[in-house]
Design goal:
With 173 residues, the chain is mainly beta. It is built from four helices and 13 strands.
Length: 173
């Protein structure tokens, strides 16, 4: 017997993703299954725009293939009803290139239900074949053609600000 059978009201409950402002910025939020960047609804934007497209450090693109390492491959990613995710890491192939100076901080899936989602490692495979792995919340069902939102950051290290004491010591030399 499942929890939804015991409490039927849970079956209609929606699960919303939360977006930490330190990673995602101040203007990213969830509204049901939709993700909003300020006033921009990604569900509506994906219907009107070709992918991939960027909004600042956010990259919105489509999943072109889903594979599981080491043995099985397929067009949808399903988890068993109980226990841990199927063996092997998920590889999500996307229709974009991030660039060699970018890392993935987090991912989200606009328009995808999060009920039953699990944390796991996922490898993002770019159009050019570069692979990057991130530990993220993965929806229970995810198919080819689904949208994926990636928040990326530059790997270049900004110059370290010098303290007033350090500048004064350099001036004395």
């Amino acid at each position: 017997m499942t929890l939804s059978e015991i409490l039927p009201s849970l079956a209609a409950a929606s699960v919303e993703r939360s977006f930490g402002p330190c990673t995602w910025g101040e203007h990213v939020s969830a509204c049901g299954h939709d993700i909003r960047i300020g006033a921009l609804s990604l569900t509506e934007a994906l219907a009107d725009r070709p992918t991939p497209f960027r909004v600042g450090d956010l990259l919105i693109c489509r999943i072109t293939a889903i594979t599981a390492a080491p043995a099985s491959t397929g067009s949808s990613m399903g988890w068993p009803e109980t226990g841990s995710p199927e063996t092997g890491r998920r590889h999500l192939h996307i229709d974009a290139d991030l660039g060699t100076d970018r890392v993935i901080d987090d991912i989200a899936f606009p328009g995808t239900c999060l009920a039953g989602a699990r944390m796991g490692d996922v490898t993002i495979v770019e159009r050019g074949g570069i692979r990057r792995t991130v530990h993220a919340e993965l929806p229970r069902e995810l198919g080819v053609g689904a949208a994926i939102l990636l928040v990326t950051a530059s790997t270049s290290v900004p110059p370290r600000p010098q303290s007033v004491a350090h500048v004064a010591m350099a001036a004395d030399v």
